[in-house]
Write a structure and sequence with these properties.
Elements lengths: L9 E2 L3 H6 L4 H18 L4 E3 L3 E4 L2 E4 L5 E4 L2 E5 L4 E4 L8 H7 L3 E2 L3 E4 L7 H18 L2
Antiparallel strand pairs: 1-2, 2-3, 3-6, 4-5, 6-7, 7-9, 8-9
Helix pairs in contact: 2-4, 3-4
C-alpha cells in the first residue's frame, strides 16, 4: 500500500517576498497584520508551507488510515477571494466568538475573511489564540 505524500511542505521561500507579491496592496497590509498577530501569539518565526501558506510552528499528524505528515500549527493564506485563516481545531465550540467576529465564511477548518476591516480584530486574535492553545495541548 503506497501512502500519499502531503504536497504542502515547509520550505525556505521568503515570507515577505511572498506577501509583497499579493494583490491588491490592501491584502498585503491585511497579511502583514495577521502575520504579526500569529507571531505574537506563537512566538514562532513565520515560514512558508507550499507556495501560498504562511505558517507558524509545526506538528506531526497520523490518521487512522495510516496517512501521516507534518503541518504548521497555525497559519494563513492571503488568497485572491479571501484571507484564509487555518484553525486546526475547527469551529464547533466557538459560536460565542463567531457571533461577534463580524463578516466571514467558514470551511471545516478554515475561516475566510474578505478584508480585516470586516471583523473585530480582538475577537480574531482570541480565535487564533484558542486554536494555538488547542494545538499545543493536542500535540505537545
Amino acid at each position: 500500500m503506497s501512502k500519499s505524500q502531503n504536497k504542502t511542505k515547509a520550505n525556505d521561500m521568503d515570507v515577505e517576498t511572498f506577501i509583497s507579491s499579493v494583490s491588491p496592496i490592501e491584502k498585503q497590509d491585511d497579511a502583514r497584520a495577521i502575520l504579526q498577530i500569529m507571531h505574537d501569539i506563537s512566538g514562532e518565526k513565520a515560514i512558508m508551507w507550499g507556495s501560498s501558506i504562511i505558517g507558524f510552528g509545526e506538528y506531526h499528524y497520523k490518521y487512522d488510515s495510516g496517512r501521516e505528515g507534518d503541518m504548521c500549527r497555525t497559519g494563513f493564506s492571503p488568497r485572491k477571494t479571501a484571507m484564509t485563516i487555518y484553525c486546526m481545531s475547527g469551529f464547533t465550540e466557538k459560536n460565542s466568538l463567531l457571533n461577534i467576529l463580524g463578516k466571514y465564511k467558514l470551511g471545516k477548518s478554515c475561516l475566510y475573511i474578505k478584508k480585516l476591516s470586516d471583523v473585530n480584530i480582538d475577537v480574531l486574535r482570541q480565535l487564533i489564540q484558542e486554536d494555538w492553545d488547542f494545538m499545543n495541548e493536542k500535540y505537545p
